[in-house]
Design brief:
725 residues; mainly beta; 41 strands; five-stranded mixed sheet
Length: 725
């Protein structure tokens, strides 16, 4: 984010200008007398926004609406926080936001499975893959199972609560929108290098600016490569990325931007440790049991086109098209205490007690393909009817996604968790495996309308969306489940002072399609949700510090589940469940003083399964009642800055049956940074220590499996050199 600032150099220039007023007057007099006047070139003054105050966002309403007038809890992790914390993964950025927690994540550290207000971002209660690929939004478009390149991230937005009315089918806890770096209109070039313990390295290069004299054509290119190993045996992450953007901005009313992205991710998933009794097994920090002879991978290419045009003083049209293709190879070894009966030798069997563990090529997909196409157009009008101001949004949204590729299942060995013999796992053998074909498709076409009314200091929001959908996760030949939905959204804001407001809202939501009844093949109702929320927002110190307190109740119904039956396949998929989340969230971020910046959060989240024949009365997995974070940065002078923070979670239930618990923890991080001149450029050297006190803690577990409990990282030192030309 760039903005004009009055730094000492600017102040000196202004003072020089004031002192030179007599000379200017004399020059004007000379010009009248016919003498030539020398014209100086224009000077553009830019500066970095170092404070933690969030930038404006259009994500919650799809319109340019100030946060104080928006009846929803919106939190933004700005680039200044991401840089100071040296957040190299999405989870490291998201830990700053109240109510954000984490489930067990597959597909490497760049694709965390996020929990918002108690519910994961991908449904794992519906008929679908147990891997629960992470779902988030990239510049407002929904993507699944795609790595997040943090080197190209401008900010991370978290919209709390259901967002189906404006963004289509999604889990009700909220959405995470990753905002990528924009194209600059002035020349910029930077190089950044991070190195750290256990093979950590990230190199990032980017250049941006105008390509012609009148700045109507602008471009940006960026490339990065991230590699890291782990204290955890066999775990590795590699991510190479390239981004190229070209924009045409003929005037202030029109812009057209085309963007090409490519990422190449290679990883081996950390499957963590099993539970022993009611706690994670007490094993060495390094111990995990996925020693696959292969690295899994995802090679993803996307093309995005954004168009915006101001038709007149009242109406603006925006359109967005995204086409994404990904070639994947999922080849992890999954440890699992249940013997699934596919052992070919005695040493491949396990008793089901947790030691030894069976190990599987568990529905691996050597040659997978994921594709997504989305087109969205919004017509936005701002006008008055009498004393009432209107901001009207009319939208059309079409979305299709498909995942294909044969999956295989092969039982390979058993391992003693206290004395594992690893490193010699045999290669995958398709001839010894059970292949499975699955149709995995999702499509919707939607129309939505929203009207935001301004009545003095009262702001009302009403929205309605109608979806026609088709979805399937079943063997080929199964008829897709086709359904239509109409979902409402209502909200009100009373801005009772220039810098603060209270709000109330109700939202309905549609999440996963539950497929079909396993026995009768009848279509099942979709998972639905509703939420009531009230909150208070305040901005202090001229908008430099913002605070939001929210109180909510969120209920998800029609949760999918399996019940036992007497005939094959011995279970039936039905809609049997309901779960509720109630909580209080508090987020604050910005500048307390000229030198001190802060981002902090607290959340109380109480969850309960209210209807389910097996799990009624249980707490949702991986959801701590109490979570908190605080990170503060202090500028010692114009060159030196220091920062530190604490990130804490209470005890959480590890699975849907609440059979084991993950202990609470508090982790401390610290940073020291120094800015200096380097020839004609600006440079900074930054030193970060994560987990200063080397606290051993657990970040999450798989809600259906007792054997996949993921550990956090030990103490890690990182050094970053950044040069801006």
């Amino acid at each position: 984010m760039k903005r004009s600032v009055l730094n000492p150099l600017t102040t000196a220039l202004c003072m020089a200008g004031i002192a030179g007023l007599p000379a200017i007057a004399q020059a004007q007099s000379d010009a009248v007398a016919g003498q030539p006047v020398q014209t100086l070139p224009a000077v553009t003054i830019t500066g970095d926004r170092e404070g933690y105050q969030p930038s404006s966002s259009t994500t919650a309403t799809r319109t340019d609406t100030p946060s104080l007038q928006t009846p929803q809890n919106i939190q933004i992790v700005p680039q200044a926080v991401i840089r100071d914390q040296n957040a190299l993964t999405p989870s490291e950025a998201l830990r700053n936001v109240a109510g954000v927690q984490f489930d067990f994540g597959f597909n490497g550290s760049m694709q965390p499975l996020i929990i918002l207000r108690g519910f994961p971002s991908a449904s794992m209660t519906a008929m679908g893959p147990m891997s629960g690929m992470s779902t988030y939004y990239l510049d407002g478009s929904k993507v699944t199972g795609v790595p997040i390149n943090m080197a190209n991230v401008q900010s991370v937005e978290v919209i709390k609560g259901p967002s189906s009315v404006l963004y289509g089918r999604a889990e009700p806890g909220g959405l995470v929108n990753v905002v990528t770096k924009p194209i600059s209109s002035v020349p910029e070039f930077s190089v950044e290098q991070t190195v750290g313990q256990r093979g950590l390295s990230r190199t990032a290069i980017e250049a941006s600016g105008a390509l012609n004299e009148d700045r109507t054509v602008r471009g940006r290119v960026a490339a990065s490569y991230h590699t890291s190993n782990s204290i955890r045996d066999f775990v590795t992450d590699r991510l190479g990325a390239f981004n190229g953007s070209l924009a045409w901005v003929p005037d202030a009313r029109t812009s057209v931007t085309a963007t090409l992205d490519y990422t190449d991710q290679r990883y081996r998933t950390d499957y963590g440790v099993p539970a022993v009794g009611s706690r994670p097994a007490d094993l060495p920090w390094s111990q995990q049991f996925n020693d696959s002879p292969y690295l899994s991978s995802a090679k993803t290419a996307s093309f995005k086109l954004d168009v915006s045009h101001q038709l007149n003083d009242t109406w603006q049209i925006k359109a967005k098209f995204l086409s994404l293709r990904s070639d994947t190879s999922e080849m992890d070894i999954s440890p699992y205490r249940v013997d699934l009966g596919a052992a070919m030798a005695p040493d491949q069997a396990c008793p089901g007690t947790g030691n030894p563990l069976c190990r599987y090529y568990f529905y691996v997909r050597p040659n997978g393909r994921y594709q997504l196409d989305q087109f969205n157009t919004d017509l936005i009008g701002k006008f008055q009817t009498g004393d009432i101001g209107h901001t009207v949004l009319l939208g059309l949204d079409t979305y299709t996604s498909k995942k294909s590729g044969t999956t295989y299942f092969q039982q390979i060995s058993a391992v003693d968790i206290y004395n594992p013999q690893l490193g010699g796992t045999p290669a995958f053998d398709a001839a010894m495996s059970m292949p499975t074909e699955i149709d995995d498709r999702n499509r919707w076409t939607s129309l939505y309308v929203q009207d935001q009314l301004a009545l003095g200091n009262v702001f009302l929001t009403g929205a309605l969306r109608h979806d026609r959908t088709s979805a399937i996760y079943a063997p080929p030949g199964t008829e897709p489940n086709k359904q239509s939905f109409t979902t409402p959204r209502l909200g009100a804001v009373w801005q009772f002072a220039p810098n603060q407001a209270i709000y109330v809202q109700y939202q309905d939501a549609v999440s996963a399609n539950n497929g079909r009844d396993t026995v009768t093949r009848a279509p099942l109702a979709a998972e639905r949700a509703k939420q009531f929320e009230i909150g208070h927002k305040i901005e202090l110190f001229g908008g430099k510090l913002s605070s939001t307190v929210a109180l909510y109740e969120l209920t998800k119904r029609n949760r999918g589940g399996s019940v036992p039956i007497a005939v094959a396949p011995f279970y039936d998929t039905v809609t049997i469940g309901k779960a509720r989340s109630r909580g209080v969230e508090w987020d604050v971020s910005g500048q307390l003083t000229k030198r001190l910046s802060l981002i902090a959060s607290y959340a109380y989240t109480a969850t309960e399964v209210t209807e389910d024949p097996t799990y009624q009365g249980k707490t949702l997995a991986n959801v701590a009642r109490h979570t908190a974070s605080m990170w503060a940065r202090y500028a010692l002078d114009s060159q030196w800055a220091a920062a530190g923070g604490i990130f804490a979670q209470g005890q959480r239930q590890g699975d849907v049956g609440n059979t084991f618990q993950l202990p609470g923890y508090a982790r401390v991080d610290a940073m020291l940074a120094y800015k200096f001149g380097l020839a004609s450029s600006k440079a900074s050297l930054q030193f970060n220590i994560d987990n200063v006190f080397n606290k051993k803690y657990y970040t999450g577990s798989h809600q259906f499996v007792q054997d996949w409990i993921k550990l956090g990282d030990p103490r890690t030192a990182k050094v970053t050199l950044r040069v801006d030309y």
